[in-house]
Amino acid sequence: MKRLTILALLLCTCMLTHGQLLHIEAPADTALTNPAFLYSQLGMQRNIFNGGHVADYDNPNVKGLTRMVLFLGGYQTFYVVVEPGQTLNVVLTKNAETGLCDVRYTGKHAALSELNNALRLFAPGKSYAAEMKAGKTDTLSYEEAFAKLDRQRAELHQVAARIDDAELRAYNDHDIDDRYLQHCITLHLDRASRYGHAPLQEPALQQLVAQINPNDTTVSDQLRAKYLTAKYPIAVTDSMDVNTYVDTEIDVILRHITSPKLRTQLLQEMAQQVANAHSPELDVERHWARLQKEGGEEVTSPFQKLIDAKRNTAAGRPCPDFGFTDAKGTQHSISELFGRTLMIDVWATWCGPCKAEIPYLEKLVEAYKDDKRLLFVSISIDTDRQAWLDKIAADKPAWPQYHVAGEQYKALLESFGITGIPRFIIINPDGTIGQADAFRPSDEQFDAKMRPFLKD
CA torsion 72→78→81→85, rounded to 10°? Predict the structure, then answer.
């Protein structure tokens, strides 16, 4: 079966005058040609029009059906589907009302390109949580949202009907119906959550999912996940207890997934969630024991090191004595800093969320500067040491700054099971773990949460 290889085109930098994969025209009044670029897994080609309004591309390395993404100014994107030996023509025109670009395709795979663009807009169209956040509820009723999905599905099938290749057309028809069911289930779940109803007690939802076989391997992972949530015997809300969620998810997997391969896959996904969880309320040991019982080593072994790290850095356990260097290259170890409570910030200069915490950290350092019980410490895991040196030279932070690389980098991440940053760690004055996955400086309750760790 032919399948699209997403973003798999390596673009050449030379222009060809014939036999091209892609021909793009952007009339002068679009006013959006200069920022345009094409993107692939292997790179980005900027300013594809080179100041003009026509672009031609070819690449002999393209093998088989391939999808590319055309980015325009104004955050507009369009998909283009190409195939060796064939030409897709793309014409961009400015929409007088919106000021943005409309697209028209001709040539080989025009219908497939049009379908890929239309699928981006195929969505439930309603979320009660989003409406509450915006302060506008029921701008679109559930009945209207369902009707919109029906119309969109019909329109998508009309586009798919123009695809020449029968096998490719059948694949896309199946994909449309799969997405349609996902979105319908999402709307039913949203309505059930709004009114505090259990999905399993919603007749219309259960009638809908009855047509899905979750053990069918042609069913997408996304639709299978929606199916399982639809089988929850309790209400699905944002305030659901994390342990209740894990228990319920494992329950429905065991109840409804009979395929050994799929069951193992889904239980592995749950094991990964448990191993990477940052919630102090999660009963990791209980859930891990159940996952081992139900799935065996095949389910849990890929994540056992993370669980071991959680156990070894549980509150009250001795802190691993890992090392790091300062800006001058002098070696240090964490044990040198024992004697007062340590708030360790594991970060990197390339990490946006890490840098977002720095202003809050600066304020806390200033607020606690006279409190000798607490020391803030930042440890960078940048692979580019110079980037770290440049950052601290520019910022001039008023608290200790260190860096790990090589074996020190490996020791820190493995000891604490760090799979994402920023990560904050609290060490007690006696060198034991206070909290291995602590609250952030931006936490509004920081002072109250830190108070129990400060000993007189």
Answer: -30
Gap between the Cα atoms of 315 and 323, Å rounded:
21
**Helix, strand or coil, per DSSP, at residue 423:** strand
**What's the CA gap between 363 and 371, in Å, rounded?**
14
For β-strands 423-427 and 433-435, DSSP reports them as antiparallel
State CA 321 to chain mean position distance: 33
| Residue 6 CB contacts under 8 Å (≥ 6 apart), including other chains | 67
Interval 140-166: pLDDT, tens: 899 999 999 999 999 999 999 999 999
Contacts with 388 (C-beta within 8 Å, 6 or more apart), sequence order = 348, 349, 380, 382, 403
Q: Which amino acid is at 158?
A: Q
**Alpha carbon distance 14, 57 (integer Å):** 8
With a cut of 80, say whether residue 382 has pLDDT above it: yes
The residue ranges of every structural domain in the chain are: 5-119, 241-312, 323-453
Q: Distance between CA 98 and CA 107 in Å, rounded?
A: 27
pTM score > 0.90 for this model?
no
CA-to-CA separations, 240 to 200, 236, 247, in angstroms, rounded: 16, 7, 12
Q: For residues 110 and 78, give the distance between their C-alpha atoms in angstroms, rounded to a whole number.
A: 12
DSSP string computed for 309-353: HHHHTSTTSBPP--EEE-TT--EEEGGGGTTSEEEEEEE-TT-HH
Distance CA 115, CA 159 (A): 6
Joined together, the tokens standing for residue 431 give 């060198």
- Nearest Cα to 90, choosing from 59, 66, 69, 121? 69
Domain 323-453 fold: Glutaredoxin (3.40.30)
Task: State the average pLDDT over residues 299-308.
Answer: 96
With 50 as the cut, is the pLDDT of residue 371 above it? yes
Q: How far apart are CA 331 and CA 371, in angstroms?
A: 26
Q: Which residue, among 290, 298, 210, 231, has the nearest Cα to 260 in the 3D structure?
A: 298
CA dihedral 289, 293, 294, 297 (to 10 degrees): 90
The CA distance from 246 to 435, in Å, is 23
